[in-house]
Structure formats: structure tokens, C-alpha cells
Predict the 3D structure of the following.
Amino acid sequence: MWDYSEKVKDHFFNPRNVGEIKNPDGVGEVGSLACGDALKFMFKLDENKRIKEAKFKTFGCGSAIASASVLTEIVIGKTLEEADKITNKDLANHLDGLPQEKMHCSVMGREALEAAIADYRGIDIKKQLEGEVTCKCFGITDKEIERVIKENQLSTVAEVTHYTKAGGGCESCHPKIEDIISKVEGKVSKKPAPEKIPQKQKLTNIQKMKLIEETIEREIRPALRTDGGDIDLVDIEGNKVIVTLRGTCSSCPSSNFTLKGLVEGKLREFVSNDIEVMVET
Amino acid sequence: MRNVYADNNATTRVAPEVVEEMLPYFSELYGNPSSMHYFGGQVEKKLIEAREKVASLLNCDPSEIIFTSCGTESDSTAIQGTVESYPYKKHIITTRVEHPAVLNLCRHLSKNGYKLTELAVDKKGCLDLSELENAIVDNTAIVSIMCANNETGVIFPIEEIGEIVKSKGAVFHCDAVQATGKIPLDMSKCAIDLLSLSGHKLHAPKGIGALYIRKGAKLTPFIIGGHQERGRRAGTENVPYIIGLGKASELAMKHIEDGNTRIKALRDRLEKELLRKCTNTRTNGDTEHRLPNTTNISFEFVEGEAILLMLSQKGIAASSGSACTSGSLEPSHVLRAMGIPFTFVHGSLRLSLSRYNNEEDIDYIIEHLPPIIERLREISPFGKD
């Protein structure tokens, strides 16, 4: 069992500012159902451009909920310039610390705050943190890793995994993470630079999963709902996307057309042109 | 507040009768069974009795039982000992839903010169036996398939599996750690060569396990040294714990009927009520072929660790297959192998009962769990339009 501080428990059992704001000034959404945690954070400014209201919704474990709750408490009353300076460490410190393995929850809080501020300013946050994907399992870029290493003075791969999830899957990126740590510490990598293999822009599994989820949410589900139907993503195996159709769709005589035309068409358009959609049997 | 322990697939309460039986063997009857004096002799008699009790739980000969330190040691002994006995065979078969004690060992071996086949399961967590049949080749040293799954309780048809493996000339090891004491196991009816069990899953203490080794099975010892366990597992016998496992086996036989009637009814009522009271909920695994004490339920849009923390605050102990509770960043390999949708896999909850649970425990869980799910769904960004 995790050794959570009293403050973490308090914020988990009695979370502050749960919910949504009507007409928020900024909204930030990070994480996904597939990854096991997700946070939707939003704020509203007063006439002096200070955050007057902040709300959140979290899908995740105890420390994910506590980190989001404490985030809302910290930002209320701050200007965006002040909020810009909040780091994941601040969140963890306000909770009297988090278990090492749970530090990524505080990073998720910081990311959601950043995304919400960027949303308000009209900046595309994803572009800013673009870089080379280091951890293919969780889709974490070198830039994201570098930043968290700097902000938290991390020195081992295990720490980087605790803070970002990077390296927590197949572990094949561990040498790359070591190189990033060395780079941040100002050391030159001991190993000779690996030969650059020209790579096609290929999505990592997690990126693909996210993109499929997003496309279903944004492009497919609304269209089906207008006809009283709905869709569920069941699984993704390589290029096969397995779904179930619900509501009126499940018994609709033209459901096969819906599947091939709308669902597959959209997924091919937005994700990858070799996607094949199948219905769960 | 009531304390309800509903995590009996993780470990069980040591039965008071078991403790009582063990106690004299610490400070009074502390002899070494190998000794040639009366002090050892009286202990040895008790060991023979314990071995007989474990054997009768499996309906096998006492000489076919060796005692180990835990279920994992039994699994390692069976698998490593078999591959070492058949050095020219370089293929191992297991399933994607095995306990890490088997799965990680097989994957370790696959990095050291062995070819590994991991059999898939369907949505209900069941195997396709024709896939097994096709997978076994002359080069196959061992097939290791569990009897009942620890997470879902799904029971594999080990009698049929045994026949298939036997007809193809490979060794069949069955990890029955989760099944022993919960459902009847009869070695005279199954073509099982090796079977692992663990004491602490059947109301004996932690630190004791056993391995059934069919007469004539070739098995290189895992721990080499003295003559104990007829040379198949060296090291001075863990006398009090072996006696404890003997007593626990005797009690398990006595209670197996109760487990498949009263406890099963408790589990069924618990499951039915939770499914009725909570929307967007599903059971994971084949409910037809399942341990009578286990239910694995997924609550969509909420995360397992958060459920466990809130349950724990109410005095209810359970477990989950979510990533945050598994100690890694990946959710349960069992639920993923079954293709449970992402929306459900992180919100899985396993409730596993024992003979120490009663109707009041079930009422208490039914009263407190649904509001927890509702509360967490209010916090969750998913599930509502």
C-alpha cells in the first residue's frame, strides 16, 4: 500500500473544486483513459486578470485526484504570469510530498495547468513540446523528459520513470534516457553517438491509441449520436481497430455501411490509411 | 466500522485450528525429523501425517508430495527441473494469463535459448484447446497452464488439457495455487505430471508450499544438498509450517462443500447486487467456469486504486488490476489479454471471499461500494456528456 501523507489523503477524500466552469477562460486536458489517468482542468479570470475560479475533473488514482485538487487551491488568486511559474514540485510540496512512483501525478497537474494557460493565450502547446519521441510505450518526447529532469534534478532512469512514466513499459529507451540525463548534467555521453537511422514519421502505439480515441470522440461519436447510436472502442491490434456499435446503430440495417464508410473512413483520414475497422463479435 | 476482508485470493487468515496445531512444534517438539533420537522421531511421525493430509486433498500418494517454501518455489522447481531433465527439448508452452511466478520464469527462459509459446485467451478468459494441441511439438519440454486464474477465478479444463499434453508426449505442469482447497482436485483423474500449491491461499501460513510430482516424472532438483524430501528438495524441513499445511488441507477438504454452496451463494448475491446498483459495470471472465469465491467487476470511468482507497477507509479490503496498484505502469496483463476495453480495464475490482465471510459482510459491501463508485464518477471527466 502506498504511504500517502495526511494532506494527500485529505485532498483525495475531500477534493476541492471538483466540477466544470461555464464559459471558462482556459481549459487544459491531459492524459487519456488508455493511459489510466486523465485530468481536465479549467479556470476563469476576474477583471484584474487573476484566476478567480478553478475547477477540475480527474480520472485516476488517489494521488492523481489529490494533485489536481491541490492545483486548483494553489492557482486561485494568482495571475497567469504567477501561475506560469508553478512547477510539479510545488504541487508535490503542497501535498507534503508524494511517493516517488507517483510523482508523475504532479507532473500531470502541471501539464494541465500549462495547457489551460496556453489555451487562453491561443498557443498550440503540443507544438512547443514537440521533439523526438523517446519512450514509445507512453509517447514521451526528449523535450518533456529533459524539462522534468531539470526541474526536479533527476539523476537516474528510475526517477525519470517515476516522474514522467517514460521508460516504464518495454524499457528499450533506457539508454536514451541515460543520455538525456547526461546531457542535462552537462556531461558528454560516454557512448559513441548511435548511427542515425532515417525514420519515417511513424506513430508510436500510444500516440496511435490516443489519436484513434480522439478521432472517435471528435469525428465519429457526434455523427452517430445524431441518429441515436453510439460507439465503443474495444481494442486496437496493430492496424485493426475493434469497436462495438450501440443504441440504434447496433440493430441498424446499414450499420455495415456506417462502419466501413464513416468509422473506417474517418480513422483512415485522421490516423493512418491502413486502418481496418472490425466489430466485436 | 466493520472490517470486511474480501481479498482472499491475495492471502487468507491462518485458521485458528492450524495455529493451534503448529504451536507445540516451535518450543516443545522442536526436533529435527532426520535425527535418530526420540526427539526427532516424534516429529517425523507428524510430518508423515501432514504429507498424507496434503496427498488426500489431491487424491494422490503421499510419496508424490514434496514441501517447498511457497507457490513460486513449487512453480520454479517444476518448470526449471523439467527443462533441465529434458535438455534436448527447447520449447515451452504457457498462457498469457499465468501468474508472474510462471509467466516471468518462462519469459526469462525464452531469453536463454528456449522458444516460448504463450497461448491466447478469448474475451471470457478461456483457452482454445485446438490452439494448444497445434502448439505442442516434439521439441516441447513442458506445458505450464494454471488451474484457476487468480484475478478472474476462471477455471481451465485441466482434465482435457492433461489428455492433450499426454497424447503429445510433453510434461504438464499445473499451477493450482489459486484452485487448491476451493474446488476438488483429483490427481487420479487428471493427467497432470506436476502441480503447485501454496499454503497461505488455503488458511495455512505464508512460507509453505507443496509440489505434487507424479510417480515416475523426471525432475532435476531445484535445491541441491541433503537427502530431505527423498532428494528432491534439500534443506531441513520447515516442520511447524508443514504440519500447518497438513491441518489446513484437512480443513479445506472438510469445507470444500461449504465453499461451493454457501460462499458461492454469497459471491453470487454480492455480484448480482453490485451489477444491479451500479450502471456501466461488467463482470470480467467466464462466469460459468469460475472459482466459487471470486468476482472480478469493472466499473467504467473510474480508476481501481481510488476505489480501493475509499473501500479501505470503510474497512473493506479488496484488490484491483489497475496500473496504479500493480506496482508497474501497465494494468493487469490478464484483463488486457482478455481484450477488456480500456474504459473498463483500469476500473477493475476483485472481491474474493473465504469461509470466514458471512451475509453481514456482503450487506456491508453492497451498502458502501456503490456510493464510492458514484462519488468517483462525479470526479471523473469521462462517462458524462
